[in-house]
Amino acid sequence: MKVRLEGGREGDRTAITLGRRAFLQLSGLAAGAALAAPAILKSTTIANAADRTPITFASAKFFGNRTVAEMVDVFNQSQSRILVKYDELPPPSASTEVHQGLVQRLAKKDGAPDVFTQDVVWIAEFAGAGWALPLDQYVSAEEAAAYFPGVLAACKWNGKLSALPWYVDSGMLYYRKDLLEAAGAAVPQTWDDLVKTATEIQKAGKAKIGFSWQGKQAEVLICDLVEFVTSHGGSILAANGKTVEIAEPNAVAAVQFMYDTIAKYRISPTDVRSWDEEPSRAPFTAGDAVFLRNWSYVYPIAQDPKASSVDGKVGVAPLPHFAGGKSAACLGGYQYGVNATTRHREAAIEFLKWLSSPATQLLFATELGLAPSRPAVFDSPELGKAQPFMQTLKPVFVGATPRPVTPKYSQVSLALQSAVSRAITNGDVEAELKRAKANLERIVGK
């Protein structure tokens, strides 16, 4: 079975599989219906396509027990007024391609796609370009309050609701419970603690790798960067989205630490510079690493004896921080948007609300492993039964840190990827970040 990775690749996983009847029971819930009162989807004669309002839905491809296409079919079968055509984009592992595909479609301003999914970091760009329909008049204050505040805030641009929450994810620390227990070590609270414990276990010959993370020149490098820099009290851009702070002392020290895990402390292999999610995950689940920074998809793989050598031996905790700082987890996840030029606004809004409804979020959580952005769904008994591990991650998700918020995010990310990749390779951290600052000032100052 496959599962999507946040900004990374597909991976094997073991998950709870709902039977066909249970799947239909959940999917038969009307938008906004109570989670505790599922209704079986009835077999009905669907209205002729010619009698229904046609809209298109473009989404990145996700993997799980069900597909996004099947979710669209559920909506099409649940009513007879709207017919949604699914436009499948590449998976999030091909983030650049997904972004380019959406930009090309939305820039035409011809109304298609009517509804789309977007990485949380593209919301400001799409809203700033006038491609995303402002949603405030369609979402009441009561409806908005049903989402995690941090995720809802990430869906706003210039004070306007420009997207509707779908799912949330964030970075976290995986560790070998058995190795820490044998070494008499606690779960690290600081990065110094992690270095000390990883070094001791490596020297004892119990693991080849102390700390596995993602240093590849890709979007995930920016996610890791956000976590290191924020946990040192620094930032990439100030809250105004214009002031560049990547070359400030705290940020420089954080990137220096990223380099030092490889070159100084030697708890991370040189190969980490070419690793994104899956290459960094593989040695951990093979039993060769003590610690791993990754997303929530790793847990079910780590606990599957067919895919992991460390099942039953893995723990998860918030990422460490620097002395005097606080743990930071990069906010991930895709959210929903409506094309500002859609010709079928009413139908698009109805489908949008169905996608983000409690019932559908529960369906995505149980069938695709995508953590819901509604606290009521997150805390529901249904989710606790199907995905008990997911519920334990709530404190990590709720406190997640966003990447820089700017309509120029794609350019900012590419410039940072190049600079940080060079910094963790050549070790000339301060000089590389000063050059990055100059580049970013030219980008966000436009």
From TrEMBL:
User: Which InterPro entries does the entry link to?
Assistant: Bact_solute-bd_prot1, SBP, TAT_signal
Q: What is its main location?
A: periplasm
Which domain of life does the UniProt lineage start with?
Bacteria
Entry GO terms, CC: periplasmic space
Task: Give its localization.
Answer: Periplasm
Keywords attached to this entry: Periplasm, Signal, Transport
Keyword Signal part of the UniProt annotation: yes
PANTHER family in the record: ABC TRANSPORTER PERIPLASMIC-BINDING PROTEIN YCJN-RELATED, ARABINOSE-BINDING PROTEIN-RELATED
What family does the entry list? Belongs to the bacterial solute-binding protein 1 family.
**Protein name listed in UniProt:** ABC transporter substrate-binding protein
